[in-house]
Specification:
2 strands, mainly alpha, about 5% strand, about 150 residues
Length: about 150
């Protein structure tokens, strides 16, 4: 009797988690739609002409996003690496704490872009197309130059 009760609880918990994760993903897609000014992820690749609203809130997050983009082959080359290293140098600023432990950098390195108005986009989202992610990465790289 106890085993069937636990199965029932486990089953209901699994359903609740699945529903919650679907809701979170939908919220992320809505945020992406708002930030990109397009019609959601499906149209993101085609509507990325207006990337002006996609920016990183901090140099640390921009450095982390560049790291993420390089690791995932959305950006390559010495220019991206050089800009990331320069931003990390500014973050360290002679302090005892390494720049890589900066929370904004850590979020960026995981693919979480923190915008200036409290928005955040997870570049790992399943529905985000590689072409759209590559354009976001290039936009953040261009913005990072202004932080230097």
């Amino acid at each position: 009797m106890k085993i069937s009760k636990y199965r029932f609880l486990l089953w209901n918990s699994s359903i609740a988690i699945a529903l919650l994760s679907g809701s979170v993903a939908a919220q992320g897609l809505g945020q992406l739609k708002d930030i990109m000014g397009g019609s959601g992820v499906g149209g993101a690749a085609s509507s990325l002409g207006s990337l002006s609203s996609i920016t990183s809130a901090s140099p640390g997050n921009a450095a982390g996003i560049i790291e993420f983009c390089m690791k995932n082959n959305y950006l390559s080359g010495g220019d991206a690496s050089s800009i990331k290293d320069q931003l990390l140098g500014k973050l360290a600023g002679g302090g005892d704490q390494p720049a890589q432990s900066n929370p904004d950098y850590v979020n960026g390195a995981m693919g979480i872009l923190k915008g200036g108005e409290g928005q955040s986009i997870d570049l790992n989202m399943a529905g985000l197309k590689a072409k759209a992610t590559k354009k976001v990465c290039q936009k953040i790289l261009d913005q990072a130059k202004s932080f230097l």
